[in-house]
Amino acid sequence: MVHSRHAVPFVFVTVLIDMIGFGIVLPVLPGLIMEITGESLAQAAAYSGFLLTAYALLQFFFAPVLGSLSDRFGRRPVLLCSLFMYAVNYCLAGLAGSLLWLFAGRIMTGIAGATHATANALVADITPPEQRAQSFGLLGMAIGLGFIFGPALGGLLGELGPRAPFYAAAALALLNCIYGFFMLPETLPPEQRRAFDWRRANPFGALSRIAEFPGLMGLAIVMLFYNLGHHVYPSVWAYFGLERFGWGSSEVGLSLTAVGVMMAISQGGLIRVVVPRIGPARTALLAFFAAFAAYLGFAFVQTIPALAMLIMLSAIGNLLGPSVQSIMSNQVPQNEQGELQGVLASLSSVGAIIGPLLMTQLFARYSDTEGLYLPGAPFLAAACLTLGALLLFAYNCRTEIRTGVTAKPTAG
Description:
Blueprint: H1 7-23, H2 29-37, H3 41-73, H4 75-95, H5 99-111, H6 115-126, H7 132-157, H8 164-183, H9 203-210, H10 216-230, H11 232-245, H12 249-300, H13 304-317, H14 320-329, H15 337-366, H16 377-396, H17 398-403
Helix pairs in contact: 1-6, 1-7, 1-8, 2-3, 3-4, 3-5, 3-15, 4-5, 4-6, 4-8, 6-15, 7-12, 7-14, 9-15, 10-15, 10-16, 11-15, 12-13, 12-14, 12-16, 15-16
């Protein structure tokens, strides 16, 4: 196992800046789409669903390729290429004069969208199996901090126009790419690398490989269902706030900042207390219940104080991803961590293909003045999907939940 005092800090900063770049555009995306298309808020939400799906569809096919490439050539070159493509995407979005430009940028980022998968594989390279839940939680903390600074900065820059945050995001991504070029070490030694195989470097071949490990396929399906529901946040949160509470870009930014604060607290601090005491499986079960309850609350919330309480409750749900991810990572040898993270990224992409379309179309349908008016309908759908994931997880990890002990890591 390779250790480097620069690796984890760099990956933390990489994910942090990546999420700042992502969060910085959320408050202004509705306004940009409406500016380009001249359509209503409901129709802009529908368009945004297709934009998110275009990204996810390309990532579904290319994430296993990039994960396998990182197992063959190392984490560093794949990660740096991904960061550079993110910078290009944000430039295209800022210059966009039509939806076609926006789609082009999302497609490019989908092809190179291996930042999180490669970062997770890098963390698995340098972290002992029993500490991986906490390390994955550290990356979750970076995501949370990104959502603190990103939306807040986006809301402020949005006052200059809906395109300004995109240029700022491009600058951040490019700056991080340059920083990584000089500072990021390689964490996968040559003797641990494996040959690249196209039969495994595709989502279907990689899934068949994952199926060879007992219990992994069931947990992969759990993550798929959970991700389907979790995409309600990036898909409709800004539109929901505009419709339910009449927010502007600054209010959307502040609300997402609150979400980020709670995410950082839960994944950067709370997980380091909860997982060592009750284990990853029981932590994930607790997180499932919290996420389910929060989705139900968001569907019918009417006041800002109630919304704040639900945001705090949903923060407990953020313990789920690192916990389940550590259970899965501990069953896979080091030279297949990139492949595993690529599969997880592909499954996340399946959620991102279906989830945004489902959530944005539900929002567009039930925020219309005709027929049943229920802007919170996407959150009801998320609650149902989370309940299904909870039941499947409880079945697959019944032994770990009962004993509080996870399965022993597979030897590499």
